[in-house]
Amino acid sequence: MTTPQHSVARPRTTAPAAGTPAIEFAGVLKNYLSHGETVPAVKRTDLAIAQGEFFSLLGPSGCGKTTTMRMIAGFEEPTAGTVFLDGKDVTHVSANKRDVNMVFQSYALFPHLNTYQNVAFGLERKKTGKDEIKRRVGEILEIVSLTGMEKRSPREMSGGQQQRVALARALVNRPRALLLDEPLGALDLKLRQQMQIELKRIQREVGITFVYVTHDQGEALTMSDRIAVMNAGVIEQLGSPREIYEKPASRFVAGFIGTSNIVDGRVERVEGGLGLLSYTAQDRVVVPVEDAVRSGDKVEVSIRPEKIDLHRGVPPVTATGGSVLSGTVTEVVYHGTSTNYTVATAAGADFTVFDQNASNADDLADRGDRVYLTWAPQHSYMIGV
Amino acid sequence: MTTQTLDRPTQAPSLKPRRRITGAGFMHGYVWLIIAWLVLPIAVMIAFGFNDTPGRYNQEWVGFTFKWYGKLFELSNLTQALVTSILIAIVSSLLAGALGTGIGYALGRYRFRGAGSLNLIMFATISSPELIMGASLLTLFASLQVGLGAVTITIAHVMFSISFVATVVRARVMTLDRSVEEAAADLGATPWVTFWKITFPIILPAVFSGVLLAFALSIDDFIVTNFTAGTTETFPLFIWGATRVGIPPQVNVMGTLIFATGVLFAVVTNIRSRRTTKTD
C-alpha cells in the first residue's frame, strides 16, 4: 500500500499499466449493525478483477453480492480493508468522485428528463462541451439501438428500452468499470435472453470491465469470463464458467450452479489417481482424487445429470472401469428437449439423470423400473474431503 | 348443465342495466344535492356582489348592477386590509414552503434522532385548536415584548402551515425511489446538485401543493390572526369588524375574485395533471 502506484492519483486519460487489476479488494469486509448486533454482510475478501473482463458475482439473495458491488460503486464503505480502482486507493472516495458507473436494478432513470437529458447527465457534471456531449450521446444511443428516441421520456418507453437508456447513461461516461445490479431481472424471458446477447456484444464493442450481479446461474454462465460464486458473505469459488460448472469447489456451488448429484462415501482404495468408493458388490463410484487422499478418507463426489447413462440391463462396465450404480426409477418428467429421471440409488442418494431426446423413441424407462447408471471416471468430481 | 350455461348470458344483460338505472338515478340526485349544498353559500356571496344596494347594508336584494366592481377599491381600509392579507399570505406560504420542504424531505428520507418527536409535534400543530394556538402565541409575544403586527402574524402563519407543507412533501419523498438519487451521485453529481437537479424537480408538484395550501390557510385565517394582529387589519379581520356596521358589497366582490382565482388554479392543475397522465 506504500507503493507509489497505489497512493498517487493517475490522470484519467492514461491507461493503467498492463496487469493492474481494474478493481481490487484487499482484505475487505463489511459488517452491518442491526438491533445493536454486528451482522457480517461480506466477510474478509481478496479479489482482483482484470481490465476488460466480464465478471459476475453470483449467489442467492443475501449472500453479499450487492453489498460487494455497492462497495465498488462507493455507496457503502467497507468496515475494514482497501478498495482499489486501477491501482488507486478509493476506499474513502465518495460515489460521485469514482470513475465507475452503475446500472440499477430499477433502472433509476430520472423521470422528469427525456432520454437525451438522462444520458447527457453524467457528461454535464464533468463540464464536457455541448458539441462533444451531443456527439457522444448520439454515438452511445446508436450502440444501444435507441437512435430517434432522444425526446422520449422514461414513462413513454418499454421496460427493455428503459434498460437500454440506463445502460447508455452509464456507458457514455466511458467509466473504468460498469457495474450492473441484476439489470435484466424485470424483463420477461425472451427479452432477457435477447439482452444477454446484446450486453455481451456491447461489452465487446466498448471494451469496458463489466461487473455483473445476478442470482441467475444461467445468465452468469452464458455471459461471464469469470464468476465469483458467493454464499453467506464468502466467495465460495472463483473461476471460469466451465471450471465452476465442471469442478464445483463446494457442495453449495455444486447445488447452486445447475443440478448436481452428490454422493458421500469412504475411499476404499486409491489406484493410479482414481479413488474407488463401493457400496455393494457391483455398485461403485470411481473418482479422480488428489494425491493427499488415502484409503479410508471420507469424500463427497459430484456428478452432473447429463453425464450419466441410464441402462435397463446390466451394463458392460467392467471394461470401462467407470462408475456404476443400480437403482429404481421414482420419477420421469418429459421436458421436450430432454427427459429427466429421478433414481433412488444403491449409494443412498437420489440421482437426477438428463437424457437427451435425440430420437423420438419412447422413454428409456418407466417409474418403478430397475435401472443401472453409468458414467466415465472423469465425470466424477471430488468436492470435499 | 348445458342449459344453465346457455341461460346465463341472456339473463345477465337484462338484469344489470335495470339495476344501474335505479342506482344511477339515486346517485345523480345525491351528487346534485351535495353540489348545491357546497355551492349555494358561494352563489349567494357572488350574487350580492351584483346587488344594487343603496347603503352599507347588503342583505336584501334590490336590483342588478356592476357598479361595485367599478368601486372595488374605493374603501381604502378594505383595500389596505386585502393588500396586507395577500402580502402576508405570499411571504408566509413561501417561508413555510421552504422550511416545510426541508423538514418533509428529512423526515421522508432519513432516520435520525428526534424524527419521532418531530412527527409528533407536526401532528400536534395540525390537530391543536386554533384558539389555543392563538392564545399561547399572544402570551409568547407579550412575554417577549414583541410588538404585534404584520411580522407577528406572518410568524404565526408560518408556524401553523409548516406542518401541512412538511406532511405533503414527506408523503412524496417516501414514495421516491432512493436509487434515483444514487444514480445521480454515481454519475458525478454532488449532493447539492443531486437535490436541485433531480430530487427537487421530482417533488416539485408536492412542494407546490404545499405552498398553495399554506397560502389558502393564511389568507382566510381569522382566529390566530386575531390574537397576533395588534392594530394591523387583515381581510378577514376587516369583514369581522364590518359585520357590526354592515358588510359593504365590495367584500362580496373581493370574495368572488379570490374564489375565482382559486377555481382557476384548480382547473389549471386538473388539466395539467390530466395531460401528464394521458401520456402514460
UniProtKB/TrEMBL annotation, chain A:
Keywords linked to the UniProt accession: ATP-binding, Cell membrane, Membrane, Nucleotide-binding, Translocase, Transport
Family annotation (CDD domains): ABC_PotA_N
A Pfam family reported for this protein in Swiss-Prot or TrEMBL: ABC_tran
Keyword Ion transport appears in the UniProt entry: no
Signal peptide: none
InterPro entries (UniProt xref): AAA+_ATPase, ABC_SmlMolc_Importer, ABC_transporter-like_ATP-bd, ABC_transporter-like_CS, Mo/tungstate-bd_C_term_dom, P-loop_NTPase, PotA-like, PotA_ATP-bd
Annotated EC: 7.6.2.11
ABC transporter domain location: 23-257
Cell membrane in keyword set: yes
Catalytic activity: ATP + H2O + polyamine-[polyamine-binding protein]Side 1 = ADP + phosphate + polyamineSide 2 + [polyamine-binding protein]Side 1
PROSITE patterns in the record: ABC_TRANSPORTER_1, ABC_TRANSPORTER_2
Alphabetical list of SUPFAM superfamilies matching this protein: MOP-like, P-loop containing nucleoside triphosphate hydrolases
SMART domains xref list: AAA (SM00382)
Root EC class: translocase
GO molecular function, one term: ATP binding
A single cellular component GO annotation: ATP-binding cassette (ABC) transporter complex
Record family assignment: Belongs to the ABC transporter superfamily. Spermidine/putrescine importer (TC 3.A.1.11.1) family.
NCBIfam families the record matches: potA
Function of the protein: Part of the ABC transporter complex PotABCD involved in spermidine/putrescine import. Responsible for energy coupling to the transport system.
Subunit details: The complex is composed of two ATP-binding proteins (PotA), two transmembrane proteins (PotB and PotC) and a solute-binding protein (PotD).
Protein's name in the database: Spermidine/putrescine import ATP-binding protein PotA
Gene (name only): potA
TrEMBL record, chain B:
Domain ABC transmembrane type-1: 82-269
SUPFAM superfamilies in UniProt: MetI-like
CDD domains according to UniProt: TM_PBP2
Signal peptide location: none
Topology in the lipid bilayer: Multi-pass membrane protein
Main location (coarse class): membrane
CC per GO annotation: plasma membrane
Cell compartments where the protein resides: Cell membrane
Biological process terms in GO annotation: transmembrane transport
Record keywords: Cell membrane, Membrane, Transmembrane, Transmembrane helix, Transport
Chain segments annotated as transmembrane: 29-50, 81-108, 120-142, 148-169, 198-219, 253-271
Pfam family for this entry, one: BPD_transp_1
Entry superkingdom: Bacteria
Similarity comment: family membership: Belongs to the binding-protein-dependent transport system permease family. CysTW subfamily.
Annotated protein name in UniProt: Spermidine/putrescine transport system permease protein
Organism expressing this protein natively: Paractinoplanes atraurantiacus
